[in-house]
Amino acid sequence: MKRIFLFLLTNIAVMVVLSVTMSVLGVGRYLTANGLDLTQLLIFSALVGFTGSIISLLISKWMAKRSTGARVIDPQAPGNAREAWLVDTVHQLADRAGIGHPEVAIYQGEPNAFATGAFKNNALVAVSTGLLESMTEEEVAAVLAHEVAHVANGDMITLTLIQGVVNTFVVFLARVVGYFVDRVVLKNDREGIGMGYYITVIACEIVFGIIASIIVAWFSRQREYRADAGSARLMGARDPMIRALARLGGLQPGELPKSFEASGISGGGAVSALFATHPPIQARIQALQAAQRL
Fold it and tell me: CA 96, 144, 64: angle at the middle one, nearest 5?
């Protein structure tokens, strides 16, 4: 809740600064005088920007189970020794990280794993059958520690809030530019807004949306480095995570639904490195090795 409060406060502060800056430069006064209420637009943009992201976060566990077919293991009655080991390992790692015990699930698929959930003490950690069959127990434990580190770091919440912030600015700036083009560039003096506004808004949302995606992807890559380091701390050594990453580097990662791709231990391909949710495996290994020398 503290993280949510701080990010909401940050978003409000940035919007206030933007509003003040536009007023100082005269842009705000001009647009307001010509019929655009910036305060209402800011509120509207925040509602649109955050609503979808927060709803997605709140239903993320349910969506993850449905989209991957993940089966949650009953901690009181695991189906076999491997399931019992998985639950026990995740619970031990959660205790070390100081969070509540996440639900533990298995799903059919190529090597991958993910963590999701709106709250640290009520998360979901899932691992694929492909990963379990291709790694040693120590390597699987390192991957599980990586996912628990994501939960402990509050990465799902932070990523959602960052997405909400950038969505807010995409909506807001696209409409400000659209209004400016319609009124100043195209000199639309008629009552109401013209087609220039709508066309400009659509074009700006595409362009600003691409920039926003780059920002969110950059943060996602940084959190992967932090979760790798978190795995090393929880395991008490970096070698298990380094070996797990090396193993992943030689495997074809299993695809996750697009909405959960950033949550996986290994991300899918991207048109450009700028849009990748995960750093290259070799870069992650080198980061751990460099930290080991400190």
Answer: 115
DSSP secondary structure letter of residue 126 = E
For 294, counting Cβ atoms within 10 Å of its Cβ (0-12 exposed, 13-18 middle, 19+ buried), the class is exposed
Q: Is 249 exposed, middle or buried (0-12, 13-18, 19+ CB in 10 A)?
A: middle
pLDDT average, residue stretch 4-28: 53
Q: Can you say whether the dihedral through the CA atoms of 175, 9, 212, 111 is positive or negative?
A: negative
3-state secondary structure of 116: strand
pLDDT of residue 30: 46
138 as an active site residue: the answer is no
Q: What is the mean pLDDT of the chain?
A: 81
Query: Closest by alpha carbon to 116, among 43, 35, 59?
Result: 59
CB neighbours of residue 292 within 10 Å: 12
Average pLDDT over residues 51-65: 83
From the centroid of its chain, how far is CA 167? 13
Whether the CB-CB separation of 263 and 256 falls below 8 Å is answered with yes
Among the listed residues 103, 139, 147, 205, the single catalytic one is 147
